[in-house]
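Write out structure tokens for Organic solute carrier partner 1.
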Amino acid sequence: MSSRTLPLLFINLGGEMLYILDQRLRAQNIPADKAKKVMNDIITTMFNKKFLEELFKPQELYSKKALRTVFDRLAHASIMRLNQASMDKLYDLMTMAFKYQVLLCPRAKDILLVSFNHMDAIKDFVKDTPSVLSQVDETYRQLIEMYTPLSSGEFQLIRQTLLIFFQDMHIRVSIFLKDKVQNSNGRFVLPISGPVPHGTHIPGLIRMFSCNGEEVKRLQFRNGGNYTGVLREGSFEMFGERVIKLGTNMYSVSRPVETHMSGTSKNSAQKKSVNTTPNPLAKEELNMLARLMGGMEVQKPGNADSVLLCYEHCFNQQANAELAKIMGDFTEEAGEPCSSSANSKGDDLLAMMDGL
């Protein structure tokens, strides 16, 4: 298990959450300034300096329940309120989308390019808000500093850690089912076509060498797929073409679900002008989420305008011992007595988030 996995898991799931919420705000015709405020509030919390300092510390992954609690808090960092069914659906879409991206990464190292695609989109959400943009840029620098020096083996360990985390999650998603990249049992269908990973060759050739290192024999075999030559490597810098499309917004018309492992250079170049109109293939999934959320209302309390998703969200504090400890820390943070241990994994981060 890799102790460097948590920041990538958090940023990629957060990116997927923002894609979904952005589309719902647009679909409900919320005024642009109010939708922007909702997005800015969530992103400000997501990239809070102290919060990220805790997140980037080497540590094991949180349990599924602890991580879910983090995203419950994050989704309610603005004045949105989701009921339990709404949050369940939102979290299912987030996790299955990122699981699919991890599975389709040509190389383990390309998980970082997927992360950068999410970061690029997040930067675009806050491009007109310099204070929030600077927080996102600082996280970008941290990602580059922490992950670009890692070896292929270390990235493989990160990928394995993510897949172990996701291995029991087989939630069916309409957009994946329609594109035939997910079976009815919730398991994904991996492609046997498309570009091969950077630094590799199309399978189909076995070369044999002598003890002196001289090639003495070649054997060809049918690879059973329809592979094409490798694309150029995506940029691992703060600015640049990622080439790979995994991690871009699958809910927009110009960005259908990825069914190969990498996009073309032409498609990558078009990423800057992504059409934000909802993808018809994603319509059913988003409509289900909309029905769970209910209609959005614009309310005007005395001191500020607000956008409210009609249902109130609540936590079941007694659901399990771990969640009870986390919630205990929340009340302790507010100055109330608490009998739970503050050293439980994820508690410090969650308590900090609750106080933001």
